[in-house]
């Protein structure tokens, strides 16, 4: 009887130890193993929202604008390039077309005003960009009305291909923009219709490129404007002339 009692006690102890280990393993697993059910990659809309924060938050960047299939008899901007700081202020060159005439002019915009050195002029003078069908740099680069506001206004954004941009890989996001948004930002189009848009975003949500395609000019079904953004974080000295 003593032997059986001893064997029973040993068996009970072993069973209890087994259950205890199993219970601790199960509980420990629940505490240390991360759950994946709530971890989802950001949607295209969320990526665009984060990209707006990045471009709005940077001290400055370098900007390029290139138009394709701009009607030869229309007034508008053909291309442009320059430096932007967050004040906002812009210093660079814009190539504009007014009817059959075109010119590349140095431009400075700051404090809500824009100056340009027109062809054959001795110095810069204040101008109204609307006169030349060009976007006002003071608005184009502002946080409230500028190019960054296009990102959250993009309809039905979806991820596209991943492309190489120098040493970086960018994620493309495509969608559509209402004509009213394009008119407000780029000062082109009649404010109606729909435009297709494609963005290129880096892994840290820098906007590297924006391509907008649509009816920018009356009687022309499709004109393309490509915008590129580089040198995030740079600052330059931009003063009124």
- Parts with pLDDT < 50 across at least 5 consecutive residues: 1-37
Biggest sheet, open or closed, and with what strands and sense? 11 strands, antiparallel
- What would you call the structural class? alpha+beta
Considering DSSP H and I runs of 4 or more, what fraction of the residues is helical?
10-25%
How many beta-strand segments? Answer: 11
Q: Tell me, what is the CATH class of the largest domain?
A: Mainly Beta
Q: Taking all residues together, what is the mean pLDDT?
A: 85
The CATH topology label of the largest domain is outer membrane lipoprotein receptor (LolB), chain A
Number of helices: 4
What gap, in angstroms, lies between the N and C termini? 109 Å
GO cellular component, one term: cell envelope
Main location: other
Pfam families: LppX_LprAFG
Subcellular location: Cell envelope
Could you characterize the architecture of this molecule?
- With 241 residues, the chain is of the alpha+beta class.
- The protein folds into two domains: 1-40; 44-230, Clam (outer membrane lipoprotein receptor (LolB), chain A), CATH 2.50.20.20.
- The protein is built from four helices and eleven strands.
- It has an eleven-stranded antiparallel sheet.
- A hairpin with an 8-residue loop joins strand 5 (113-116) and strand 6 (125-127).
- The longest helix is centred in the first third of the chain and has 31 residues, at 2-32.
- The radius of gyration is 29 Å and the shape is globular.
- The termini are far apart.
- This is Lipoprotein LprG.
- Residues 25-45 are annotated as: Disordered.
- It comes from Calidifontibacter indicus.
